Amino acid sequence: MDLREKVIAIIADQAMLEPADVTPEQSPADLGIDSLGLVESIFAIEEAFDISVPFNANAPEESGFDISSVGAIVAAVERLVQDRHAAA
Amino acid sequence: MNYTLQQIAEALGAEWKGDGSLRITGAAEPGMAGADDLALAMSPRYAEALQQGSARAALVWPDADWQAMGLAGAVIAPRGRLAMARLTQLLDPMPADPGIHPSAVIDPSAEIGADVHVGPLAVIGAGAVIGAGSRIEAQASIGPGVRLGEGALIHSGARLGRNVVAGARLIVQPNAVIGGDGFSFVTEAESHVESARAELGQGSVSADADPTWHRIHSLGAVSLGDDVEIGACATIDAGTIRPTRIGNGSKIDNLVQVGHNCVIGDHCLLCGHVGLAGSVTIGDRSVLGGKVGVSDNLVIGADVVLTGGSIVLSNVPAGRVMMGYPATKIDTQVESYKALRRLPRLMRDLAASRKG
């Protein structure tokens, strides 16, 4: 399972959908994930990839971690994983 | 029921379109609606289901293309759940048999207002005053000295203790108990509980010489404002000297416990399983989610929101949103939770760096 599939599996799990039903352009709200559900998804992502997501649950737009869509989340996780490899 | 579409729109204070003379005999979910039902389709996600049912009229969202959905008429609901409030009030069939059942036991000194219904085996105590148009359902008991405003609806099996006073339109769901005695006991000398509280964090106490709990009686009853609703099996304890108070328009859900001497403001919501210890004060318009607990003698300000399962151990200023145990501001709580969730990885990293 590549990074993209893993992130989508985590989001699908929270949305109680099949990963095949989750598309990159959907937002967490489209998938029925509320703010606390999103916090849980982000913890699961942190644990799966051993990264720290700079995420502010109270002001998501200020956190520098784009959560506007599934595709944006995948891209942001890719960057964080690359940064971690670069730092190691 | 039998209304025209126009009559329903007028009762809802809503706009209607199409054939206002359509006869409506019931309400139904869009997919299951028959030809004479008003389909409840207040958001676009019901558009598809509307096609599966056979409704000719529906309650729809503001810019719905009702004609394209095959409807002959529509009532526009800008705020779906508010329309539901008014529609369900209109459709709820109230029993049409006011009168005193012969098996009801009513003290001769009780004053029963006009058009009051008292169901079988209900009991009304000495000096009670029941406001006009009230319904006391089967097996409810109304204690001595109780005063109910007009239009009360006391469902079956509910109990109102002595001297409980309520404003107009009180609704009490089955088996609720209002005005039972408070849970109030005291020892001869300072008890180990009091010393535990005074020396917070001490962790141990010594046994009391005399552990007897002396009962403090509850003489204060309960006072409820206008338009209060009390849920099934909820319990509101009587005050010690003055009444336990619940303000106008406040609604209390099933299985809520309100301790003696609490003062709850106007328009509050206490959701299922809320527990208030004694002498808690809650300001107007505050909302306590399900299973919220509040320790005794605390003050919660007006317009506070406590999220489900929060346990409040200290006073809460007005306008605050609180969460968790101990309840803290929701942003602080979410930050703490994030740190807690990251702790296992942090510990692993720490252990690895010590080895390295």
Description:
The complex is a heterodimer of chains A (88) and B (356). Chain A is an all-alpha fold. Chain A has helices at 3-15, 35-49, 70-87. Chain A has a single domain, classed as Orthogonal Bundle (Non-ribosomal Peptide Synthetase Peptidyl Carrier Protein, Chain A). Chain A contains 3 helices and no strands. Chain A is globular. By secondary structure, chain B is of the alpha/beta class. In chain B, the strands form 6 sheets. An 11-stranded mixed β-sheet of chain B has the order 10-13-16-19-24-27-30-33-36-38-39. In chain B, strands 8-11-14-17-20-25-28-31-34-37 form a 10-stranded parallel β-sheet, with no helix packed on it. The mean pLDDT of chain B is 94. The A-B interface holds A 39, 43, 46-47, 50, 52, 55, 57-58 and B 330-331, 334, 337-338, 341-342, 345.
